[in-house]
Amino acid sequence: MSRTDADGWGARVERRVGRTREFVEETDPGALVVVGLAMGSLLAAFAGFLLAAAWTVVPLGVFVVTTVYGWLRHQALVARAVTFAMTTVTIVTLGLIVVFIFVEAVPAFRYESATVFGVSVPGLGMFVQTRWDAVSDPVRYSLVPMIHGTVTVTIIATLVAGPLGVAAALFSAEIAPPTVREFVKPGIEVLAGIPSIVYGFIGFTIINPWASEEFALNGGSTYLFVGIVVGLMALPTVVSVAEDALTSVPDSMKDGSLALGATDWQSMTSITLPAAFSGVSAAVLLGVGRAIGETMAATVMLAGVQRLPEPLTNVFYGYETLTSLIAANYGNASGVQESALFAAGVVLFVTVLALSIASQYIEARMRRRLGGAE
Amino acid sequence: MSRATESVLVREGRSGYEAVTASAVGLSGLAFAVGLVALLDIVAIDAPVAGVGLSAALGATLLVLGLAVVGFGAASRLDYVGTAPQPSAGVVAAGAFTIVWFTAAVLVAGAVGITGVVGLVVALAVGGVAFAVTAFPREDVGSTLPAGAMAVLGGLALATGLVGPGWEWELVAYNATLFGDTAVPVVAMTASLLTGWAAAKSYGGFGARGRNVGAYVLIYLVVLSILAVLVGLLAFVTIRGLPGLFNGFAVGGEGLVRWPFLTNGAGLLADTAGVFPALVGTIWLVVGAVVFAVPTGVGAAVFLSEYAEQGRFTQVVEVATNGLWSTPSIVFGLFGAAFLIPRFGNQKSLIAGMLTLGFMLLPLVLITSREAILAVPDEYRDASAALGVSKWETVRSVVLPAAIPGITTGVILGVGRIAGETAPILLTTGGGVLPTKTAAASVLGGFQLSASPPFVTNPELLQATSALPYQLYALITAGLSGNIEDPQQFAWGLALTLLLVVLAFYAVGIATRYYFRRKLHQ
Description:
The complex is a heterodimer of chains A (about 375) and B (about 525). Chain A is mainly alpha-helical and about 375 residues long. Chain A contains 15 helices and four strands. Chain A has two domains: about 5-110, no CATH class; about 145-370, Orthogonal Bundle (MetI-like fold). In chain A, strands 1-2 form a two-stranded antiparallel ribbon. Chain A is globular and about 80 Å long. Chains A and B meet through helix 4, helix 6, helix 7, helix 8 and helix 11 of A and strand 4, helix 9, helix 11, helix 12 and helix 13 of B.
């Protein structure tokens, strides 16, 4: 990666070409034709699907026929080509998500342009004013109230999931006797398996009325309890990722500390946790990402009104988050309003992707520091 | 090191101290549990306990606990018992006590009417004092005095009825009111948590061992609470859902078992409303997602771990996979709505939902399959290669069979996860609130041949259909009402059905893992 000069590039391309030629010369020409035909028709089918063409089925059929034929005659090469095509699916999917939600969001970004220093910046209007009203004039699509809701819920959820998750991970990785761990680990997995709509249903039928009575509220939707429920849902993510990080600390490090007469807790706080610190923080980051993206519990429990609470720190009232905005309004919306929902999706997607990449970077750094423990 | 030996020697004469501190830990745990039960409105705070209200009894308990904890610290400081305290309780404890005392001061100041800057200054001062009291004296005083004092204050407030049944504090700016019903349990739980920790530290004789005990008490409490929440949730949904699920259930008669909730739709003709169309919809969604995602994910995992050279390409795939894994489900829904719906007849359809869930399942399958394939020891591959077997033959007949257990577990757990997803199918599959039995998708019988492209069509796949999580959402948005006998009972039965379907996948997945692990260790 250090050689970015023209020479290095040239040499590398030459090597690549050379290797490809070698590969082509060595391989049976019949197999090459079959694989080429299969891959070509797959590409054509994909292009046809993108263009929503009715004839997409023809290249798809060609692909299936050539692959089946190739599988019988030249299995090794076909398997390699097909698995390669499957590998690209993840990248293509991510690319398609980016393109499609961005394209759909463009009209809303155009509509909500704002002028800074004489330059019109598309989309800025969504963040510098606080009015969302799709019906009465002036029609504006500010995302600020929803971003405020998402941030509030995420902070509360992180306060729940972070400390509890790290404590539970420490328990599961370091403290628990083996028999207890056999119960705790599946238990936490099952917690991850409870569908979010079930949480939402309990929140809607039990927690909301309870909160309304307990605090004499005007309606039962609160950011406080949505945050706690979402925190509970993000908890398993934090526990399992943090536990992986803690167990990846080599035993030799802990044993050294224990051999010096340190207590278990001392070796945890002065050896294991510092060594696994990046992994544990990556776990919390991933938990934050889960909390930001959590949809159904928020949609069902929140009031579904696009406004800011008064004062801003009022967690006893809950109006709308980015996710609940999309879930509750998609289908009834059209035109610019629908596009504004995609804009909310863009904000969500970009934020969570950034968190994911950040946590991957942190984890990679930790793995390098521990000397390739993987 | 000399201190450690000393503490071991002195511990001989400490059994009375240990017994008292241990019972203080137990009493704190009891107070915490009672507070929790009261917070959940299972018992009222004015329920009679030994002649007084529960609130006053809790107050008295806290008072005793607080004084006891201060006593533990004093006994250690005055060398009545042999302990091994360190010079200071440490910055972490000091920071924690600062936050606790600051918060308490803000709340008390607000409740007695000191608000604004004055209240904040008072609270900051209180927090500062708490920091100093924790950080500067020796550890035995520093970690007991702030905890005990908090419990004494809270206990006094509850025991004297200053805060108790009928107490209320209107938060005007927040348009909310705090009542004794909430305040008493919260005070009791906070104070008992502090005394429990401090008593546990005293039990361990402070120092390294004391900290060990104190931290373990807190961690065990956290894990117990998480498991309690889990068991509570499952039990609650089960108890609420059973009447709905078994409504009209009968064994015998025509057919072996009559289970109308699972075999009926919700139309006028059905004697008991059921969730059959949604159940069928969920099954088809899962089948479709698996058919798309499992071969793709496993193939990609094979390529990544067996063929690809570690480099830029694998790195990009890894980032993309993890990115997809953490992408919010609602964004997948938006993507399905924008990308798939226009390509499948411009309406919500079963196949759009299948593919959207497939996209969500893909990263889960890929990550777990890759881990499973990487876990196959290299010796297997080397041995196979040494016999002259080609690369692909090795992958097919050595690596994949060895990795199958891990792949299966991962796939089952992933399927359990997507089976309960609502957000993506909300935007892509839709369906009615209370569909009749005829609305259930019959995919197998729906294939038709035609002369024009795409030659094979299946209208069943191109229609909106219901699914268990979607129907629950639709019922909630309809305000839990509808043209059926008891919508509440129906909805709880539906929630239980959904939970059982998802947990069945988890149970099978976890059981598979244990089965294969047992086999591996034999």
